[in-house]
């Protein structure tokens, strides 16, 4: 089970390898939110999202013999790229299992980061069977995207940095809004804040209609999403909170927040204009909640995690189209 | 005359007020350039460009009585926003003189940062006469955009950070490509590197056809641009190097580099895709030179300054359109 000692150990392994991303701000965003808004820009992390932290944490913790046989992950998104780069930099083989209809650019990027991409047909093939067979044959270690203590510990290093950076800004009491899919990032941050910044409280932010974590927190038990497609914030749509992440979230997090796809696009546009960073829709929901749910937040300041920036140009152009020329 | 002591004094005044911007990288950019590419992301500076450093340096150095009367600047761009915010945070009035046909958003931004914007008609009014009259009437101090020792010292703090960050990356021998208009940033960086990283050499990067600094360096004397309009990189088009900046550049800089508008747009697109930062065309020319002029650069690594990100959405969309969907 992940605890603060595991997060601090992960931070030691990540030192010099992951970026300490900046905490950004703009008086224009403060004016919209009606309070100070501090944005932890994890889109600037290696591979464009916080996922590199958890991947590095997991890969670096393997014993060298096991690592040399390689790792495997199921993902067509940010976790895939994080695992691919973390493995490559350790000189370890990585196999990423992806649907054959994944965007070409994502497949190419993952290969360019040094991974072997194994494609499967979603209609006719069983992903887990393919992965299991490869793992047994080659002795690969599976790196789960969120329900894995070492991955949660890696994501928690974001929270250690937030605790230090918020203190530098004089902020000791605030909500820390975190884009939330399976809950690995939110759980890791919540544990780090509990230990190092008890006046900061983690709160998950999700897309409306896919707010399984908010509903689970309210119910005190895991609740599923009714659907798994239909949000532009696809990177953070998961069936339900994890078996490992949920108890952490339930113990430490404040109530969840949810925003619409339109609000996520608006937050992307404002991050472009005011912070000069690129966010993907799922990486912008925490900023959107900070800006557009002011009544649901208390205090003079709010911190939000901008968790990723791997967005298709056409989707980004949709966000930009909100500005009049 | 700006020297390293002035730059270090400026760094002390900027501490806690300007951001220490990150040095970013991507294996994908390294592959294009054929060497390591390290990008100093000054687009993440307050007001979206390095100009905030020089403005803060100049405003903070004024004696309090003079500062309380206020400052004035002529600019419709990055210098205007830098001076406006630096003055506002010192509680000092700022007057920004802008052409009446400047983009509405730039006028509104400058006002929102607390400055009084005085508009003039380019066809019928004399900007300098308006500024001089206001300055005399109110006792305002003029903050020049580049040919001013305190401004050069502020921009030089970028170079102090590059020296430290490059050493952390193990890079001690490299060209440091700097987007160059009047030369304030390039001169400040060159002085900082001379003192703190003698193996790093500043080199100006400019738009093709507006490479007054490159031609001046080659000739050993100031040369003018034939035209002052016609580049998408308008933020760094100036008539000629400054009287104060040029001798510094001539003593310390390597040969200049020039890139096309198309190459600047391509570099913006790659910065979006690989670094998740927003660059304006004039802020992307150094990255473009690093990526597309490999034969003009020596060594295993190149550092480039991404100097600003204040770009109209429609121009950014033009850069994004280079990606096939």
Automatic annotation (TrEMBL), chains A, B:
The UniProt record lists the keyword Magnesium: yes
Domain Tryptophan synthase beta chain-like PALP residue range list: 16-308
Cofactor: Mn(2+); pyridoxal 5'-phosphate; Ca(2+); Mg(2+)
PROSITE patterns: DEHYDRATASE_SER_THR
Gene3D superfamilies in the record: 3.40.50.1100
GO molecular function: ATP binding; L-serine ammonia-lyase activity; magnesium ion binding; pyridoxal phosphate binding; serine racemase activity; threonine racemase activity
One of the GO BP terms on file: D-serine biosynthetic process
Domain of life: Bacteria
Keywords: Lyase, Magnesium, Pyridoxal phosphate
Secretion signal span: none
Similarity annotation: Belongs to the serine/threonine dehydratase family.
Protein's name according to its UniProt entry: L-threonine ammonia-lyase
Biological source species: Cereibacter azotoformans
């Amino acid at each position: 089970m992940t605890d603060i000692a595991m997060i601090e150990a992960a931070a030691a392994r990540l030192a010099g390898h992951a970026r300490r991303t900046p905490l950004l701000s703009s008086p224009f965003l403060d004016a919209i939110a009606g309070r100070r808004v501090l944005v932890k820009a994890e889109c600037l992390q290696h591979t464009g999202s916080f996922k590199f932290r958890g991947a590095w944490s997991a890969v670096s913790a393997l014993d060298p013999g096991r690592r040399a046989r390689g790792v495997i992950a199921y993902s067509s998104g940010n976790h895939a790229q994080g695992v691919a780069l973390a493995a490559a930099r350790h000189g370890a083989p990585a196999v990423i299992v992806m649907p054959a209809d994944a965007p070409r650019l994502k497949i190419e990027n993952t290969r360019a980061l040094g991974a072997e991409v194994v494609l499967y047909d979603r209609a006719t093939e069983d992903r887990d069977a393919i992965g299991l067979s490869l793992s047994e044959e080659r002795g690969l270690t599976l790196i789960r995207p969120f329900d894995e203590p070492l991955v949660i510990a890696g994501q928690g290093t974001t929270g250690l940095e937030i605790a230090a950076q918020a203190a530098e800004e004089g902020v000791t009491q605030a909500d820390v809004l975190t884009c939330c899919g399976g809950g690995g990032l939110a759980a890791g941050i919540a544990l780090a804040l509990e230990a190092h910044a008890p006046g900061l409280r983690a709160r998950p932010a999700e897309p409306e209609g896919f707010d399984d974590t908010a509903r689970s927190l309210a119910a005190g038990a895991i609740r599923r999403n009714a659907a798994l497609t239909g949000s532009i914030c696809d990177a953070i749509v998961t069936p339900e909170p994890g078996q490992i992440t949920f108890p952490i979230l339930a113990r430490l997090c404040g109530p969840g927040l949810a925003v619409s796809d339109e609000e996520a696009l608006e937050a992307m546009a404002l991050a472009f204009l005011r912070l000069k960073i690129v966010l993907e829709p799922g990486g912008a929901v925490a900023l959107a909640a900070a800006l557009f749910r002011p009544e649901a937040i208390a205090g003079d300041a709010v911190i939000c995690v901008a968790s990723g920036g791997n967005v298709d140009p056409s989707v980004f152009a949709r966000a930009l189209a909100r500005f009049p020329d």
